[in-house]
Amino acid sequence: MLPYSRQTISNADVEAIVAALRSDWLTTGPAVEAFENEFAKSTQSTEAVAFCNGTAALHAAMAVLGIGPDDEVIVPAITFVATANAVLYQGGVPVFADVDAQTLLLDPDHVERLITKQTRAIIAVDYAGQPCDYQALSDIARRHGLAIVADACHSVGARFGESPVGSLADLTCFSFHPVKPMTTAEGGMVTTRDRDLAAALRKFRNHGIAKDFRQREAALTYEYDMSELGFNYRLSDLHAALGLSQLKQLDDFRKARSLVAGWYRDRLVPLKGLIDPLEQREECVNAWHLFVVRIRHGCGITRDHLFRELRAADIGVNVHYLPVYLHSYYRGQFGYRRGLCPVAEKAHAEILSLPIFPGMTEDEVDRVCSFIERSIAMGFRTCAA
Question: Is the pTM here over 0.90, yes or no?
């Protein structure tokens, strides 16, 4: 099976984990702080706070912003469920905004129309690895006194203009799951330029306790106080050691993914109007977490049929994502129905994620595209018959 994505692990990564295993610290040790410091530098942020996964990072962001019952947070319809779930964890209300038809990124015009007196924040999702229009979203946030949270779980290593993702929002959340542009196996991070928010994030990930074990040891005290309800969302030193090693390779990973994306775009030119990649904005540097195409009506084959054909040929395509509000939990709990975000719903019926990862070869891209061409040709012949 050619997977839609896979991690790239080097000898240096293995050696970094072994070194952590042989150290005195397996968790809450120096590797975590080192990873946070290097990640903050790479994203031009003041602070970086590590978490056990990207979902925990999103939850923490909602918590430190004080999101609570009846507070509304605008999220895009097309995203992984964790984006909206993080709002629910705090008792807030996710309000679903539609996406741009060409990029599937959050539509700023629709965002502004959804703002009410209860709106507290906007979560911008860098879908597939391409940054949102942070200039437009920041203008909206300033006018209405809202916080912006960047869900950058797809876009570590990307840039908007000259600014790296991680420096573009009040809080930026990352995921380091194995299919993402870099990995810690499981892990996450929140970056910010606000030191008070960073302190609140560290407290939230440690049961609501301000002083961790090392701080108490340095102060020669056993005393600690839990001043608020928090969670155990800490990242271990093993994961952080892998993250430090992967971070050094991140630019190479991004360039390799960009090369694969370029092969796809060139190879799919003859199928324009039938199989269309998402539009790429000139001012952005894409992290290329996903390579998403749209299967247009009239190409002789549906998205679902092409999905089954490719999977049967051991080509691991996928679909990212069903609009969140159409999942059974959201429909059952909140009564959502189709028609809420028509652009997102239309896109979901057409989108297909093709395999992309740093070690992918041009021959493998050709294999995927050749099979798509044959499937479309068969579809046309079937229609003609």
Answer: yes
